[in-house]
User: Fold this.
Amino acid sequence: MSSFDRGLSAADAGPGRYTAPDWDDAVDPRAGDEERVVESALRPHSLADFIGQPKVARQLDLVLEGAKRRGRPPDHVLLSGPPGLGKTSLALIIGSELGTAVKITSGPAIERSGDLAAMLSNLAPGDVLFIDEIHRIARPAEELLYMAMEDFRVDVVVGKGPGATAIPLEINPFTLVGATTRAGLLTGPLRDRFGFVGQMEFYDTTDLQKVIARSADLLGVELTADGSAEIAGRSRGTPRIANRLLRRVRDFAEVRADGRVTLEVARAALALYDVDDLGLDRLDRSVLDALVTKFGGGPVGVATLAVAVGEEPHTVEEVCEPFLVRAGLLARTPRGRVATEAAFRHLGHAVPRGGVPLSGGTGDRPSAGPGDSTLFDA
Ligand SMILES: Nc1ncnc2c1ncn2[C@@H]1O[C@H](COP(=O)(O)OP(=O)(O)OP(=O)(O)O)[C@@H](O)[C@H]1O
Ligand SMILES: [Mg+2]
Assistant:
C-alpha cells in the first residue's frame, strides 16, 4: 500500500473527527464523514494533477524540488484557507511528490501531548506528518511541537509529580504539514515555525470547470462544456461544492434524461436542488428575502433575522452569511445586517429610491473579491 493510500483511509474515514452538517445543504463548503469517503476517489494525486491555485502550487513546487535536490526534508508547510479548497489534497500530494509516507492526525484528535510525542518518535526519516485543523491543537501538545519542528527533538516526561523528569529524545527529520481554516487562531510561535505558508484562494469558474471535467472523467459521466460551465458558476469558488453538484446533476441526468450532463440538464437539476445561478440555496435566499422584504434592507440584528427565517442565529451567521458577504449581497455593519443593491436586484426587487442603507456609507461595504477575510474567519 502506498503512502498515499494510507493517508486517504486515515484522513477521510476517521470516525468522529468531523460533524456532518445536520441539514441537506448542496452548497455547504464543509463535508460530512460519508462525503469524505466519496471525495477520496476524486483527489488529485500529483501537483501536475492539481488544478488552479497557481501561486501556492508554483511556490510549493519550488520548495519540494529544492528539498529533493538537497536530499533533505523540505520546510514545514502551513496550508490555510476556507473548507473544500484542497488543503488535504495538497498535503497528501506533498507526500506523494516526495515519495514519503504521510502520517495523519488532527488538532482535536491529539488529546495528550504524550500521544503526539509517540507519533513523532515513530516517524521514519523524511516522513510527512499532516495535522489537520492545527489551530485546535491543545497547548501542551503545541509546545511539544515547537521543539520537534525546530530541533527534531521531543521531551519525554518520565514519572509523575515533583520527581518527574524530562528526557530529551531525538526524532527523525520530518516535514510537518498543518492545515487550518482559521489561520487567525494560530499562535505566533507556531505560525513562525512554518517555513512555507500557502494561502488557498477561491477558484475562478474556468478552474472549477476543469475540476468538474476531471471529476466527470473519473466518474465516467458524459459532460458538455456548457453543462460544466453552468455547474461551475454555481459552485461558490469551491471544488468540493463543484464535485457535489456534479454528482447530484449526474443522478438527475441518469434518472430524468439520457445520462448526459448538458446545459439544460444541469439547469433543471440545480433548480430541483434549489441552487440558484449565483449558488445560493433556499436558506440563503430566505435570509436575503427576509432582510429585503421584512426589514426594508436592514440594518437588522442577526438574531432577529434568524427568527424571521426560523433558523438558529449561528446557522445564519456561520452557514449563510459568509458567502452572502463574499458575493456582495449582504454586509455586516456595526448596526446590523444590511442588504446591498445587488441583493435587491438578485431577488428581482426594485432598489429603493435613495439607495440601500449601505449607500449612506458606513465604510463597511462588503468586498466581493476572493479571499475576503470576513468570510475566512467568519
Ligand atoms: N485543485 C483541485 N483539483 C482537483 N480537485 C480538487 C482540488 N482541490 C480540491 N479538490 C477536490 O475537492 C474535494 C475537497 O478537497 P480537500 O478535502 O482537499 O479540501 P480541504 O481544503 O482539505 O477541506 P477541509 O477544510 O474541509 O478539510 C476533494 O474531493 C478534491 O478532490
Ligand atoms: Mg481537509
Remarks:
- Residues 30-31, 39, 42-44, 50-53, 83-89, 179, 181, 211, 239-240, 243 surround adenosine-5'-triphosphate (ligand 1) (CB under 6 Å).
- The longest strand covers residues 153-158.
